[in-house]
Each structure stands twice: as C-alpha cells, then as structure tokens.
C-alpha cells in the first residue's frame, strides 16, 4: 500500500501507460481519477473513477480538479501522461495544424494540468507532479518534429516546476519511456517500431506496467528526495 490514502489524477488513462498506472496506483491504496476523452472498457478496481477530460481545455481542467478537491480536499499526485505522436513529418513538411495539435496536447496539456493543480498542492503543502516525456525528449530523432520538440519542452518544464515550487513541498519529475507496447505504438508503422527496437540494447518493447512502476515510485513517499529528475525507462536506448 505504497500510496495509501493518496488522491491521484492520471491523464491519458483510458488505455496504455495511463490505464496501467491508474490500476497500479489503486492497487497500492490510492483513490484514482482516470482522465481521458474515452475509455475502452471499465476499470477493474472500484478505487478508479473515470472522468472525461480534454487536456487542451483549461476550463475542463478546472472543472475536474475542483470536483476532486471538493470531494477530498486535496490532490496529492498528478500524472500528466496524455500525449500523442500526431505526425512523423520533419519541420519542412509537417502540416501547421498537426504541429499545433501535438503541441497543444503534449505540452499545453502538461502546462494546464500543472497550472490548475499547483495552487491546490501549495495550499496542502505537498504534492507530486509526474510528467511523461520520452526518450525523444532526451535524444534526437529524424522526422517527428512536433513530438520531439514537445517532449523536450516537457523535460525542461518539469525542471522549472521543480525549482519553482520546491519550497512549497511540491516535487516534479519526468518519466522518459522508450518504445512501449501500447495501442499508440501498435498503430504506427511496424518498420518504425522495429527500427527503434533494433536500437534498444535490451532488444524488446517495454510494457505499460514497467512504466507504471516508475510512476508509482515517483508518486510515493519513497522518492521524497527526488525533484527535477529524469526517470529513464528505455531498455538502454539513451545510453548510446
């Protein structure tokens, strides 16, 4: 029960990493709000409540967060996990609408989440914010201009949050998954996936559960002396 009595909000929780994390948080004692545009099937744990949330909508964020705080008085953990690749195009050919969409979800979604939750965490004197970046927020990749730019920005925004709110008892850390077996990866070109797996020293896809365990550590008091850190779970990809 590593998250006993904690109140957690997880975005992008309808499937993949977010869903695995929501279920794991609940199994470890948290009351979890799983936010997404939709959910494929009901959650197994009664401690997980689905809430509809468009992370690009600041007013929707305020509605969801206010509802949680009205019911529980606080939010202890925010896992800003919602994201998408959106486009594999480089800067000279990506459609401007695609660029804006990826930035809006991957970066503005994290910004809106932190902006909404930080005042509540400051009032409580504590909190853990976890932001999903990527191996491509650390290492470069050809094409995927919007995705790499957005995930690199999430990496540095996390450090900014860590420095800005450490005195308020708020910790902020980023997770950098490698290539993970999720619906998002299943939908991309198989050659792209095979290429990244071939460059991964452990030679396989990671699992959503493996990332969820990293998020669990950062959400728990076990990581109480960690802030502004990058938790890389990538099968060794970024060691090269």
UniProtKB/TrEMBL annotation:
GO terms for molecular function, please? glucose 1-dehydrogenase [NAD(P)+] activity
Determine if Oxidoreductase is one of this entry's keywords: yes
The organism's superkingdom is given as Bacteria
Transferase listed as a keyword: no
Instruction: List the Pfam families.
Output: adh_short_C2
Q: What is its EC number?
A: 1.1.1.47
The UniProt entry, under PROSITE patterns, shows:
ADH_SHORT (PS00061)
Gene3D superfamilies attached here?
NAD(P)-binding Rossmann-like Domain
Protein name in UniProt: Glucose 1-dehydrogenase
Family matches, as SUPFAM superfamilies: NAD(P)-binding Rossmann-fold domains
Which enzyme class?
oxidoreductase
Family recorded in the similarity comment: Belongs to the short-chain dehydrogenases/reductases (SDR) family.
- Tell me the keywords, alphabetical order: Oxidoreductase
InterPro entries, per the entry: NAD(P)-bd_dom_sf, Sc_DH/Rdtase_CS, SDR_fam
NCBIfam families associated with the record: PRK07231.1 (NF005559)
């Amino acid at each position: 029960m590593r998250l006993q009595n904690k109140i957690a909000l997880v975005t992008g929780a309808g499937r993949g990493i977010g869903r695995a994390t929501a279920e794991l948080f609940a199994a470890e004692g948290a009351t979890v709000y799983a936010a997404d545009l939709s959910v494929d099937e009901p959650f197994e744990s009664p401690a997980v409540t689905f809430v509809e949330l468009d992370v690009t909508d600041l007013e929707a964020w305020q509605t969801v967060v206010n509802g949680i705080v009205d019911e529980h008085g606080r939010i202890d953990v925010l896992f800003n996990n919602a994201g998408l690749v959106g486009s594999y195009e480089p800067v000279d050919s990506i459609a401007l609408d695609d660029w804006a969409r990826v930035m809006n979800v991957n970066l503005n979604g994290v910004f809106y989440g932190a902006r909404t939750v930080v005042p509540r965490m400051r009032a409580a004197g504590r909190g853990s914010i976890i932001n999903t970046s990527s191996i491509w927020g650390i290492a470069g990749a050809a094409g995927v201009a919007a995705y790499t730019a957005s995930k690199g920005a999430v990496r540095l925004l996390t450090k900014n949050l860590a420095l800005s709110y450490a005195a308020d008892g708020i910790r902020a850390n980023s997770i950098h998954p490698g290539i993970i077996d999720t619906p998002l990866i299943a939908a991309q070109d198989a050659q792209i996936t095979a290429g990244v797996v071939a460059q991964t020293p452990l030679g396989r896809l990671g699992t959503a559960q493996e990332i969820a365990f990293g998020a669990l550590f950062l959400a728990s008091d076990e990581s109480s002396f960690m802030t502004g850190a990058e938790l890389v779970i990538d099968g060794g990809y970024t060691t090269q």
